[in-house]
Write a structure and sequence with these properties.
It is built from four helices and five strands, in the order E-E-H-E-H-E-H-E-H. The chain has 135 residues and is α/β, with parallel strands linked by helices.
Length: 135
């Protein structure tokens, strides 16, 4: 690991790592982010990774290639990756550039991505309803 931080937040929810990419991700930060994420997958035994790209308004070939490589590395480390929240403009750009995100699973939004990784939102009891208490 480089000892530097990409500045991309990386949260753990159980055995899933959750992160999001921003427009400001330059090539160097993308490489540092890849190092950080693969280190965390290995160190924490993550079985899944959700990368939310809903704030990414544009994508270039380098970031697209980085996503593909990151997905391959995560699979080799035993984790599934879901890329969620792709905007139509990003999808159009990828097609126009002839870039296929081979091996990258996608979801319309983060909630669907988490569900694809085995997470399900449990219904909240109505306000004021008694909660189950252990006996």
């Amino acid at each position: 690991m480089t000892g530097r931080s990409s500045g991309v937040p990386l949260l753990r929810l159980g055995d899933v790592l959750v992160t999001g990419l921003l427009d400001e991700l330059d090539d160097k930060a993308a490489l540092v982010f890849t190092d950080e994420l693969t280190e965390r997958i290995s160190a924490e035994g993550a079985r899944g990774v959700l990368i939310d790209i809903s704030r990414l308004e544009i994508i270039d070939s380098f970031v697209a290639r980085t996503l593909m490589e990151l997905t391959t590395m995560a699979r080799l480390l035993g984790a599934r990756v879901i890329v969620a929240g792709m905007r139509p403009a990003v999808a159009i750009t990828l097609v126009e550039l002839g870039i296929e995100l081979t091996g990258v699973r996608t979801a319309l939004n983060a909630e669907q991505g988490m569900a694809a990784l085995g997470w399900h939102q449990s219904p909240q009891p109505p306000e004021g309803a008694p909660r189950d208490t252990p006996r």
